[in-house]
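## tool: complex_structure
## caller: assistant
## args:
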Amino acid sequence: MDMSTRRYAFSQRAENLTSSAIREILKITERPEVISFAGGLPSPKGFPVAELKAAFDRVLQDQGTVALQYGPTEGYAPLREWVAEDLRRTGADVSADEVLIVSGSQQALDMLGKLYIDAGSPVLVEAPSYLGALQSFSLFEPRFVSTPTDDRGLIPEALTDERTAGARFIYVLPNFQNPTGLTLDLARRKALVERCAQLDLPIIEDDPYGELRYSGEPLPGLLGLGRAAGATVIRLGTFSKVLAPGLRLGYVVAPREIISKLVQIKQATDLHTASLTQMAVYEAVSTGFLDTHLPKVRELYKQQCAYMLDALAQHFPKSVQWTRPEGGMFIWVTMPDHINSQELLRAAIDEYVAFVPGAPFFAGVEPQHNTMRLSFVTVPEDRIRAGVATLGRLIGQRER
Amino acid sequence: MDMSTRRYAFSQRAENLTSSAIREILKITERPEVISFAGGLPSPKGFPVAELKAAFDRVLQDQGTVALQYGPTEGYAPLREWVAEDLRRTGADVSADEVLIVSGSQQALDMLGKLYIDAGSPVLVEAPSYLGALQSFSLFEPRFVSTPTDDRGLIPEALTDERTAGARFIYVLPNFQNPTGLTLDLARRKALVERCAQLDLPIIEDDPYGELRYSGEPLPGLLGLGRAAGATVIRLGTFSKVLAPGLRLGYVVAPREIISKLVQIKQATDLHTASLTQMAVYEAVSTGFLDTHLPKVRELYKQQCAYMLDALAQHFPKSVQWTRPEGGMFIWVTMPDHINSQELLRAAIDEYVAFVPGAPFFAGVEPQHNTMRLSFVTVPEDRIRAGVATLGRLIGQRER
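## result:
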């Protein structure tokens, strides 16, 4: 199809889609000789293959025709109840009818875009924030308003009347944020939910990594704190990091009025999430399996993170700063202002090392071009050390 | 949450969503004492449970960590190749990179809404058309333009310059249409693709039931005919009716330029469709299993259809007309003009019989309130006969 002869029209949102230059560059990183810190993939060492195989087996054996038939849009009732119970253990008073099962929490972002965003609607995002959320919301043509962050996470005092005027929601990743690895501290969590309750500004709490805390103490989630403070909190969770991402299974927790709208949206979007997958995951988690599985995954990630922190201390110049995550998958690196990470990436790829430059994670604000995101979870120790040494040398060559 | 005190705003599209009165009525039909012709469920007798169980087993046994990891947005390469090959057997020259795997073809409708529809964009739909497509497109706030149909399907001559002005696409179900059960005949298929080529109007060919033909001769699809005529055709297919709907697996076939946009949209929508499901389905279908499985499913549906046609002939008044499908799951009934099928449904439910009234299947045109859709696939013969007898009596009471 020759675009120059095309007479029919795409939507404005589709015309605005551009193929990401970074994605093109990063395709190279799939080659095995490249040491890639670019991925956002969980470690396959943490996938409970045998347990999931047994769970799929049992469901197809005992309830095959139900698992293969159309199911309710809201999700498989026992799994909704399990999610509610799991959250009640953390102190949030949630009932099963406040839970909607989705096909990975990325889908929840799409559905929330549909629910909240008209073309031009202001939406508040952290600077920087999860790239996939920015892409998902972008399809609904919002006006991004950036919320500043520091090493304690999002700064609630920045939520001025002026900055929040007309905003449809604020999108926050409170634990081991993607891309920074930072955690919103308790005082700020409280200040955030109180301010949002005052503004009647819905909070979208995206928490894919919360169960992957390997140091420090767990903090109460925004859902529980927010409900206590009278704020509207929509919590997104996923089985991608605690079981496996290839299942595409996540959930939304929200007040019933919002769940009811989201169910209608979900029905128009893909009818429902695969029944078989929901039933097999319920089969796996309802045994309490995660209680023994998660400590192993946390230990694995902790070790991987330690390798990278050690290598950074050894090889990176003194002028460079980085975060020290207490969980999750990512470290955020800030270089001297004049070093551009996209230019650095080109040089790094020539030496078979890759990462994600920081600029695309910023929306509604001038990007910090001197930043990058490093993922440490799938790379073996010796390659972490070698890759970080290469990056350190390349940065050193660019210092003034 | 009390809506009267809500100060924050949903999007316009979400404010427009209303809970369907019919859906509320039809919830009653899930009770086992109700004879329901309302469902759109395939027969679980046609689900190959043992074969799918073996397929999931093999994939998790041999390729577990790949099946559970994030996968490419485009879909699992061998499955894309299988779809292309399957279509080449029907005469359409398709390559694997023109195939995108989706989470059920309902998701393809959502993605095509994103690709094509701006608020107010005209889109052409058959009158009547698939309710789920109308709901899906509605979220993007199009202006529906209805295309008249008769018992040979959509009428191509009705695609005047005036009716098609500015239209983003035409949405067509050529085989055993939902809701009418009617098939677009060959002459009209040719006329349709030629006219659309002339107008440069993309055709969305939704074909969930094409493999379920149990009488008459298969007709060439719009994809092959359209490509030969220079039309842009986007074909939607699904494994829901040939394997099982609870898997949520379908595909889109389109020119590369369109696939490329849809891949970006899919990534923002849900990253990708579950790897495990794609690999297991490939494992099941690549053996040629469908060649022996589908004839059994067709025989089952043929028999069910025959029961209902026989019962209709026996019990329905002479003033009533209905379609005689050559495949698929639905019969469309047209009663005398003055009989309102929503009123009839209330009376029928009092006698424990249910169906879907025809009005919601119409968009952009005055609905035909004297119509209804009957599904025959999941109801045992004796209950088909009893339910049709009840409906016949209730209609008879309303004749003038």
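## assistant note: Residues 201 and 389 of chain B are 45 Å apart (CA to CA). Residues 289-315 of chain B form the longest helix (27 residues). Handing back to user.
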